[in-house]
Amino acid sequence: MDFRGVFALKPNDVVALFSPNTIEYPIVCHSIVGSGAIVAPTSAALTALELNAQLKTSRARLIIVHSSLYQTAEKAVRGTSVEKVILLDGALPVDGETTCEYLASTCTPLPLKEISQAEASTKPVFICFSSGTSGPSKGVVTTHQNLTSNLQQWRSHMLDSGSSDQQVKRNTTIAFLPFSHIYGLNLYMCQCLLWGTTVVILPRFDLDQYLECVEKYRPDELALVPPIALMIVKDSRVSKYDLRSVKRIMSAAAPLTNELSSALEAKFKELYQTEVFCTQSWGLTETSPMATAVPNDRMDKRESGVGCITHNMEFRFVDPETMTDVSTNPDGTSEPGEIWCRGPNVTKGYYNNEEATKAAFHVEPDGTRWFRTGDIGVIDKEGYVSIQDRIKEMIKYKGLQVIPSELEGKLIDHPDIEDAGVVGMWVDEMATELPVAFVVLSSEARERKSSSVLKEIHTWLNPKIANHKRLRGGIHVIDQIPKSPSGKILRRQLKDLLKSKKPKAQL
């Protein structure tokens, strides 16, 4: 459908999309792009206040809203540049608003239009908002070139490993990841269209519904995020379903520990006597998103990290304090460093935010721009990358580094723990940070005295970790670990809980 005539949209006008996953979503999304406008996908989980902030950032002229979210959107548009609210679903308007179904019946079909290389490399097609786990959410500019390059990078990455085009294609995929997130947007609305993959759309994640769909539609590969992987490992309901069609699991969007990856593979072997390979890829909204992946012919490297660098990308591993490249050890593995990258899939910057754009890039004297990812990682002699943690999330205990994700991986391996999150707590009298854990206990453990359970966890964990990594800030029981829609732990919320608890150091 052509939005230009109905709403006098001009090139580079922004249209926000506020909806859960629906069959209409990709149709409308690609129609907006075809009209020459920019799509700003927004998470269906946002509050009116959060949506208002994103609408102000994107300066959207229109917002297309699912009817279930209309009241939230109605509040959110106040004080923004939004001129019109359009309903995504249904033939009947709410409060006189226009519906997409009505527009489709009146709009002229759009002819296909080729764009020049210059336009593809500069014209935004999406404004995808970052997760905001370590600061305010920013609008990441994704151009045509960013997205199409990443589609080709993924295909080439797999073909190089000896796979045929047919093997690279998925037969079916279950779409529960939000279309508003770059992972779901790229995978479901672009990759699957390119490959002709059948997409089964779920409006939101529900474990039973998801498992029913896997059993019914028999996908050979699952695209997951770590919280879902954890559910499959820990939840007894999984055994009721036949998931033996699955041959490979790919996790992304948040760190997947080796412990959880191995437990996931073991679960399939236990239930179905089948061998499933679980791999992890890595990227960011700013890399559109994939930057590394494990090739099909190197499953032996799946426990080494997040795979190797994709085509046409360059990485540097830089000491964030000295701003110089890190050294390489005798075994060929680099010292840990912040990953800097560049390539055709890397964003030009943040929408209407020159300050954030300037801070995110290191510019060489010759004009070469390196995107500073904020992730600490290492690379081995074969070019395989391992991510340690976010710079902002690293804990320093008496000058020694403690990696939260490493401790979380150990903790969720304990039979009494369903989920875990680790943060640092600053203690003035010790002039250092202490690692603190928040855990969700199993139903059986919750029936026992919590103090004895936590003591058992300390006793079990301490021999498995270095002395400086011990949870000297304590372990606290909560009902749920706060996470973003993509599965990233919201550590700021855990730190807010610390402020209210005011725990004492446990030396």
Automatic annotation (TrEMBL):
InterPro entries: AMP-bd_C, AMP-bd_C_sf, AMP-binding_CS, AMP-dep_synth/lig_dom. The keyword Protein biosynthesis does not apply. SUPFAM superfamilies: Acetyl-CoA synthetase-like. Residues 406-488 form the AMP-binding enzyme C-terminal domain. Keywords: Ligase. GO terms for molecular function: CoA-ligase activity. Pfam families: AMP-binding (PF00501), AMP-binding_C (PF13193). This is Uncharacterized protein. It comes from Penicillium citrinum.
